[in-house]
Amino acid sequence: MDSPTSPVLQGPSAAEFMGVCTIAALISMVLYGLIVAQTYMYFIAYDEDPRWLKGSVLIIWVFETSHFIFTIFWLYHLLIEGFGDLRISENSTWSPTASIVLEEIAAGMIQSLYLRRLWILSHQNMLLMVPLAVVVFLRFATAIISAILLVTLGLFSEFGTISAPKAIADTSNFLRCVADALIAASMIYYLCRNKPASANPLDRTLSREYRNRGVQDEVMQ
Question: How far is CA 23 from the centre of its chain?
Fold first, then answer.
């Protein structure tokens, strides 16, 4: 008598996995183009801004550019070097990990600049700023830990099935949503309450970068 066999979980096919990656990368190209255009327009239109602000925008653009290059490099690895072979796609090579780290650094910089602006707009409201700073710090820390664990495990499949790394990654994504929502709501409240502050070039610049980065993050995740 044949012994019962346990059901086998079927993962995505090569076409499904690589198709999703390709579509996400194409959308990311469009969003990166918007970032390049807006960064160029910013340096043309707001030459009077302080150097530290222009330097921050430039550094964010460099990180976003590096993130995009590493993403395309990984896509080439999947579609050309490992076409049709899901075993290659399971390996967490250096390029997606580096892409994640650079994007998280860029996100941390943008959120830090927003926190600085909120600190000014809220007149040093500690009840608002302390929780926001804690959420932003925990989001950044869990994201970096997730990237380190991804390198340590070496396989995307293992990263998604082991409880601890998966929990850390889920926590990072949850904190990202919380941080974005709290920062956006706080900025809307204070800018509506103090409309002249909305003319500040820092607010305009960060708003453009923040919107594009948020959409790009959701696409690439």
Answer: 17
CB 212 within 8 A of CB 34: yes
Signed CA dihedral, 154, 158, 163, 168: sign only: positive
Q: How far apart are CA 195 and CA 112, in angstroms?
A: 22
Across residues 158-168, what is the average pLDDT? 70
Residues 111/134, Cβ–Cβ less than 8 Å: no
Question: How would you write the chain as a 3-class SS string?
Answer: CCCCCCCCCCCCCHHHHHHHHHHHHHHHHHHHHHHHHHHHHHHHHCCCCCHHHHHHHHHHHHHHHHHHHHHHHHHHHHHHHCCCCHHHHHECCHHHHHHHHHHHHHHHHHHHHHHHHHHHHCCCCHHHHHHHHHHHHHHHHHHHHHHHHHHHHCEHHHHHHCHHHHHHHHHHHHHHHHHHHHHHHHHHHHHHHCHHHHHCHHHHHHHHHHHHHHHHHHHHC
How far apart, in whole angstroms, are the C-alpha atoms of residue 162 and residue 149?
11
Q: What confidence tens digit (pLDDT) does each residue in 97-132 have?
A: 788 888 888 888 888 888 988 998 888 899 999 999
Closest CA to 94 of 75, 80, 74: 74
* pTM, to two decimals: 0.70
**60 near 106, Cβ under 8 Å?**
yes
Cα–Cα distance, 139 to 70 (Å, whole number): 22
Place of tokens 């790009």: 216
Answer whether 165's CB lies under 8 Å from 159's CB: yes
